[in-house]
Amino acid sequence: YLKTLLAYCQLPLPIFFSRPDTARQPDNNITTMASNRRTDILSLIHLRSDGRRPHEIRHMSCHLGALPSTTDCGSALPTSACSGSSLVSMGLTQVLCVVRGPCEVGRRSEELPDRATLEVNMKTTPFAPPGDRRSVNPTTDRRLIEQSHLLQKALSASILLHLYPKSKISVTVMVLADDGGRLEAAINAATLALMDAGIPLKDMVCACSAGRWNAGGSDEIVVDLNRREIQAATGTGGGGGGTSDTIYLPVATMPQRGTIVLSQCESRLSGGAEAFGEVLEAAMGGCQMVMEVMAAAVRERGAGLWKAKEGKANVLLDDW
Predict the structure, then answer these.
(1) Which of 182, 172, 174, 166 is nearest to 152 (CA)?
(2) Extended strands (E) in the chain
(3) Is the pLDDT of residue 228 over 70?
(4) What number is the average pLDDT over the span 218-237?
(5) Engineered SS bond to 94: which of 120, 176, 190, 247, CB 3.0-4.6 Å?
(6) What are phi and psi of 317, to 5 degrees?
(7) Quick one: which H or E segment has residue 187?
């Protein structure tokens, strides 16, 4: 590998600056060549396009209590005070989730006598997807409606809804930045927001994706795909993928119980059940790593609340 890297380094580099009489703007072809050269070097040392190893998740940060429980959340979020909130970032994908309830149901026809009603709304900001500034209507967009149903299905498997009959729990998810894996980030953020609201759960619902992506001629399984890898695996965006050898599988599990609550695959499997099992096992391993990050955030939040109860918390006031 070292000899190959040295050989790449000795290749002639593009000249962006020349004498004033012959100065010109950089060509897009030169930028594409530099990007392809970087991808080739990373593939030679078995790294992905963003420098990660195949079974490595993106950098993940979780923050519970992102919005105060006595603050009006605005028009895009529930109009009354939120019971719990969280802010989750997975790489360049960032999601804000707000939970309201349990509260009284507005219509009698929506009441359930034996359990609570779970209402899930998933929205996206106009600046969330890169290169696309269109305003998306969450009530008519097919992808947002589908992901809202999947999110509701995953959360219903963990929330103890029978403890709150004839009531409603509202979960609103706002996608602030989308670099791939927004459904997985929304599931993780909703779980943390429910825990911040004090709603009992059977177990934490952790989500991560996995896929088989042919990168640089090496067919291997990768975990936590970003937007570029998803486009290559599904054949969208002109990535050149979408063949029978590419798989994209988002999975949500309850790791402590070893239960799969969500698994969706829209790719054709050339290897049959064996190939699906390998990708599913890799995704469950990614969910385990996600759970460790989420559990650390919950412990940090609990420690902060305990310090506040004992009067040892530091309060930071903004300058007016």
Answers:
(1) 172
(2) 60-64, 84-90, 93-104, 117-124, 167-177, 206-215, 218-223, 247-254, 259-263
(3) yes
(4) 78
(5) 176
(6) -105, 135
(7) helix 182-196
- Give the chain's mean pLDDT: 79
User: Cα–Cα distances in Å, from 243 out to 54, 222, 232?
Assistant: 20, 16, 9
Report the side by side order of strands in the sheet with 247-254.
218-223, 206-215, 247-254, 259-263
pLDDT for residue 135: 64
Report the Cα–Cα distance between both ends of the chain, in Å, rounded: 58
Rounded Cα gap, residues 185 and 147, in angstroms? 12
State the angle between helix axes of 142-156 and 182-196 in degrees (0 to 180), rounded to the nearest 10.
40
pLDDT tens figures, 190-212: 999 999 999 999 999 999 999 88
Residue 5 is predicted with a pLDDT of 45
Question: Would you say 265 and 247 are in contact if contact means Cβ atoms under 8 Å apart?
Answer: yes
Three-state SS sequence of 304-316: HHHHHHHCCCCCC
Please report the pLDDT score of residue 263 as a whole number. 92
What gap in Å lies between CA 103 and CA 98, rounded to an integer? 14
At 82, is the secondary structure helix, strand, or coil?
A: coil
The edge-to-edge listing of strands for the beta sheet with 167-177 is 60-64, 84-90, 93-104, 167-177, 117-124
310 or 266, greater pLDDT = 310
